[in-house]
Amino acid sequence: GQQVMQIPQYQHVQEGEDFTTYCNSSTTLSNIQWYKQRPGGHPVFLIQLVKSGEVKKQKRLTFQFGEAKKNSSLHITATQTTDVGTYFCAGNQAGTALIFGKGTTLSVSS
Amino acid sequence: EPEVTQTPSHQVTQMGQEVILRCVPISNHLYFYWYRQILGQKVEFLVSFYNNEISEKSEIFDDQFSVERPDGSNFTLKIRSTKLEDSAMYFCASSEGTGPLSGANVLTFGAGSRLTVL
Fold first, then answer.
1. Which residues from chain B sit within 8 angstroms of residue A35, using beta carbons?
2. Chain A partners within 8 Å of B90 (Cβ)
3. Which of A5, A65, B53, B110 would be a feasible disulfide site paired with A49, CB 3.0-4.6 Å?
């Protein structure tokens, strides 16, 4: 079945450093979504990418969808302590359930 | 902002007991889902539900699990005979639809129900 892999599993940075998490799918995706889960919380939607090669920005966050629609990345510029949490990518093929990656847990020290 | 609400927030049960977890999806959403997350691990898909029937289920969703929409607002997950390995956070989610271009397939999650099986 479809698998979504994400690396790294954990990342610790100093406040102000950049952070990137990478997501790869075993199959071509119709779209990819990114969610953030704060410690003790639930996944909260961040963004969706649909088009091949698409790049979207939300303030310090930059999301990319690969040309082959099988990989994606999330890059945070100049991390802040409020960025702490687990970032999940999730993808699916048309009409199927959204499958989540294992997530990347980001910790930030000030 | 519309929310998905889940009850109970935490349930402790003995192995072999039946558990029902409840969810109220967002009112204009048509697709409902259950996911689970074992502590510190990935969010795993269990089942999706549309038009009063299961539209997709994972290998995890075996005969011990069932879902129901007993009325116009609630969506329930029943575990018939709980096992130790069922201990997890169970998240309900809903979406407007499944089409990615309109963003209708974006999931809104509830706060979760933590199930502890002793």
1. 107
2. none
3. A65
